[in-house]
Design goal:
- It contains 15 helices and six strands.
- By secondary structure, the chain is α+β, with helices and mostly antiparallel strands.
- A hairpin with a 4-residue loop joins strand 2 and strand 3.
Length: 510
């Protein structure tokens, strides 16, 4: 323990013997350090916090939801420090006074970007911080400039969210209107092309009136006509048979004579008329007429031939001839219709080879029409949706801004901490002076004690002689001590004066 104490005393004695060197080094280091600290410009910082409240009754109905708003807020937060917005800040504050060229403006923007910080504290709380340390401005002007920068950033923040959405909505609607006009023009062109194609290829297109359908209809009609021709031919053959068994004339007895022959002729005429009306042989009246005719024929067979009467045209025969002419005309008409259908079917069959290509082209035209129509309807719905959203955002308070902490007016520089730096320079200067003196004591080959000399030489030291000063030497020594302490005190005085000047400058800013 005594050894350590002796070493400490030796070190203090070594420094004390070189106290003037230590004082000179301390003065030099302090002056240099204080000069460097004085050259560091003061940086003033201003902060503000704003709250964003997102609310809207119609948000879920028209698509203005909180998640989309939050994304927009994040986008604005990221783009708030963009070059365009920072140029607005430069133009809107005192920074514009020192801007004369585009290059100077770009330099100001880059400097401003480094001194602005935007961060989100919570979901709806934002903090904007700006620092100003322009060398061409005083401390008071830098303090005001920092506050103005933050205020301008708040204005841009609000503008980007309020008017930004409206301008974006307006631009979107304008774009959609242009797209709708283009789609409408293309849709009209396709519709005209479809009408023209249908007109040019009438009968070859699929659907109602196509060749395939017309062929099927012709085949069905032809089968029906064949059936009608078969029925008409059978009916005509039966009618010819009846006509062959019916006499063309009948014998009529004299006046007043109502013989069996006259009744037979009348009954046969009635039977022919009934069959002409479509009655069949199983009809009760036809059966009754046949029975009566059979009875009358038996009576006629018993009457004498000639009967003294005269012959007249048989009305049944005439009626059967009329019916045969009518059946022959109907059969000829059916046969003519059959020939016409066969000719039409032959013509349609020759055109049917063109139908697939025409159908494919028509399908392509219809497909283009449907696609354009779908795009047009979707664009129309999107435009109405965005238009409604724009009206909701502009006419309702879907987004509210509230400044919680307005831009602060800094009264003291945020950087550097000049009082602390001045104190650190003083401590470093004193430490540097002491260290220099201590190092010089180790470099020079002197021995402060007899023990050190004995240890270094390896020889015993008999004794040592203390320094003896005269009265005049003591006075000189006291005078030098006064000068030393005065100079040392002056160093602390300069430090105190610098501290006073610093606080005076801060008071002037406030």
């Amino acid at each position: 323990m005594n050894g350590l104490y002796d070493e400490f005393k030796i070190a203090v004695h070594s420094v004390w013997n070189r106290r003037w060197l230590a004082l000179a080094v301390a003065w030099g280091l302090c002056l240099l350090g204080w000069l460097v600290v004085a050259l560091i410009p003061n940086s003033y910082e201003s902060q503000a916090r704003i709250s964003v409240e997102m609310q809207s009754i119609l948000s879920d109905k028209v698509g203005v939801d909180a998640r989309e708003r939050k994304k927009n807020m994040e986008r604005v937060q990221e783009t708030l420090a963009s070059t365009i917005n920072l140029e607005k800040v430069v133009r809107g504050t005192a920074l514009n006074q020192s801007v004369a060229t585009d290059r100077e403006l770009a330099n100001k923007v880059e400097t401003l970007r480094k001194s602005i910080e935007i961060k989100s504290e919570k979901d709806n709380l934002f903090e904007i911080t700006a620092r100003s340390s322009a060398s061409n401005f005083s401390d008071a002007e830098n303090a005001v400039l920092a506050r103005d920068i933050v205020q301008k950033m708040i204005d841009i923040f609000v503008e980007e969210n309020l008017s930004g959405d409206r301008s974006e909505t307006s631009q979107t609607i304008k774009f959609l209107d242009a797209q709708l006009a283009q789609r409408e023009k293309e849709l009209q062109e396709v519709e005209q092309k479809r009408v023209r194609f249908e007109t040019e290829n009438l009968g070859l297109l699929p659907g109602i009136g196509s060749i395939s359908q017309r062929m099927e209809a012709a085949r069905a009609e032809l089968a029906q006509i064949d059936s009608q021709i078969s029925q008409a031919s059978g009916s005509l053959a039966a009618l010819n048979g009846q006509l062959a068994g019916t006499p063309s004339s009948i014998a009529t007895p004299g006046i007043g004579s109502g013989g069996a022959r006259g009744q037979l002729a009348q009954m046969e005429a009635n039977l022919a008329g009934a069959r002409a009306r479509g009655w069949t042989d199983s009809h009760p009246d036809i059966i009754s007429m046949k029975n009566e005719i059979a009875a009358l024929r038996g009576q006629v067979a018993k009457e004498p031939a000639g009967g003294g009467g005269y012959r007249t045209p048989n009305p049944a025969y005439s009626s059967l001839q009329s019916m045969r002419a009518e059946r022959q005309a109907s059969l000829a008409a059916l046969q003519a219709r059959k020939n016409a259908l066969q000719a039409d079917m032959a013509q349609l069959a020759s055109k049917q080879t063109l139908e697939p290509g025409v159908a494919a082209e028509m399908s392509r035209i219809n497909r283009d029409h449907e696609v354009l129509k779908e795009q047009y309807n979707k664009l129309l719905a999107d435009r109405e949706q965005i238009k409604l959203r724009g009206q909701v955002e502009s006419e309702t308070d879907s987004l509210k801004f509230r400044v919680i902490d307005p831009p602060s007016s800094p009264r003291s520089p945020a950087a550097p901490n000049r009082p602390l730096l001045l104190a650190m320079v003083l401590i470093a200067g004193i430490g540097g002076g002491i260290g220099t003196a201590f190092a010089m004591g180790h470099v020079q080959t002197s021995y402060p004690t007899a023990a050190r000399l004995e240890k270094a030489s390896g020889l015993p030291v008999i004794g040592s002689v203390s320094q003896i000063l005269t009265s005049a030497q003591r006075e000189i020594q006291k005078k030098k001590l006064r000068i030393f302490f005065g100079t040392s005190g002056a160093l602390f005085g300069v430090f105190g004066m610098l501290m006073i000047v610093e606080f005076i400058q801060r008071g002037m800013v406030a």
